[in-house]
């Protein structure tokens, strides 16, 4: 399969504007989940979509690779309880922490509750996210733009607050659900002046007129940039890596629900073909790989992008976070000064929310 792809690449190479080198992973590396054996895992947004599928995949691991405990951070207690049943049924222990991950203040509180429940975390999965169908940017009552608050800030607060738990084992993995839209829509460039404000672009540019395409992918880009800088300053033993699921319209992100409701059912196969849509089962595989494969031991600051223009996964070796499988580079992620500026500005912003007492 590798050879066929290589020869195809050579045949088609005049059509490519960029020539990328393709290295493929071995089947052993792709399917290995041994790192998860008897580990403590924390996941945000586990009750639906990709998060729920990650939980299902964890529950169906062979006995010797099953985690010891999974901590679920979710907004809905009843959904979290039914999700936890999937794990309990196969003798994986669970803990549930309820809260709104779009509220920085509540994320601080959830981190404190986590510290009261466990002494260490081996795998921290940042998965919760939203993709609004609003055509204008929306800000929360705390003044933060919604995608920035949920998709980005819950990541930075949880990782920094849970660092003592991540450094307790000899190694631990932070795994982030990233996105190719950082390149397709946000064009790899962060606009510091509209980071979390009401003002600024909302729709994507040509080729992505989806409502909120820009503001969604911009928050994703911030996630990638923060992870890039964090990978350099994290204590030894804590790795941080990003995985991209590709296009997975089966999730309940608002944008996908709306798309499904607007397009006549008989046209959906055609749309799915155009989007190279993947099922959730396929979409979580890059994440399962960075969580579980021993190939990822000691690797940090990488992006596992198994293509997004193909329905099936292309098992490329992970690249640095700023780089995509096709060789294109996100300018802002590749710039250490921009990444460290974002990291510092985020630290200051988080401090502000830490001060505010939780409203009851
Ligand atoms: C699995 O982890 C738990 C909790 O850390 C520990 O008590 C137990 O001994 C471990 N089991 C094995 C087989 O290593």
From TrEMBL:
Residues 1-21 form the signal peptide. It holds the Pfam family adh_short. InterPro entries: NAD(P)-bd_dom_sf, SDR_fam. Keywords: Oxidoreductase, Signal. GO terms for molecular function: oxidoreductase activity. PANTHER family: RETINOL DEHYDROGENASE, SHORT-CHAIN DEHYDROGENASE_REDUCTASE FAMILY PROTEIN. Belongs to the short-chain dehydrogenases/reductases (SDR) family. This is NAD(P)-binding protein.
């Amino acid at each position: 399969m590798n050879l066929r792809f290589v020869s195809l690449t050579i045949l088609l190479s005049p059509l490519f504007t960029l020539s990328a080198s393709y290295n493929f992973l071995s089947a052993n590396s792709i399917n290995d989940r041994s790192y998860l054996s008897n580990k403590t895992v924390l996941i945000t947004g586990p009750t639906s979509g990709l998060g729920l599928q990650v939980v299902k995949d964890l529950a169906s691991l062979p006995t010797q690779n099953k985690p010891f405990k999974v901590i679920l951070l979710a907004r809905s207690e009843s959904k979290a309880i039914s999700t936890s049943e999937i794990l309990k049924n196969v003798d994986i222990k669970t803990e549930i922490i309820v809260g709104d991950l779009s509220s920085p203040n509540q994320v601080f509180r959830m981190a404190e509750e986590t510290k009261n429940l466990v002494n260490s975390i081996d795998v921290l999965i940042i998965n919760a996210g939203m993709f609004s169908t609003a055509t204008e940017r929306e800000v929360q009552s705390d003044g933060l733009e919604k995608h920035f608050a949920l998709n980005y800030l819950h990541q930075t607060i949880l990782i920094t607050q849970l660092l003592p738990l991540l450094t307790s084992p000899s190694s631990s993995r932070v795994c982030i659900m990233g996105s190719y839209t950082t390149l397709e829509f946000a064009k790899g460039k962060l606009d510091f002046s509209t980071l979390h404000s009401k003002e600024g672009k909302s729709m994507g540019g040509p080729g992505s007129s989806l409502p909120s395409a820009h503001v969604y992918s911009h928050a994703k880009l911030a996630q990638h940039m923060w992870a890039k800088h964090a990978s350099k300053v994290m204590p030894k033993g804590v790795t941080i890596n990003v995985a991209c699921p590709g296009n997975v319209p089966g999730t309940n992100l608002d944008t996908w629900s709306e798309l499904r409701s607007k397009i006549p059912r008989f046209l959906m196969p055609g749309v799915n073909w155009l989007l190279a849509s993947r099922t959730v089962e396929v979409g979580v595989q890059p994440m399962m790989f960075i969580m579980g494969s021993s190939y990822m031991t000691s690797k940090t600051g990488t992006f596992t992008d198994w293509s997004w223009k193909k329905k099936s996964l292309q098992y490329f070796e992970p690249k640095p976070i700023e780089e995509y499988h096709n060789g294109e580079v996100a300018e802002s992620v590749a710039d250490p000064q921009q990444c460290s500026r974002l990291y510092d500005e985020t630290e200051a912003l988080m401090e502000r929310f830490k001060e505010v007492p939780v409203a009851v």
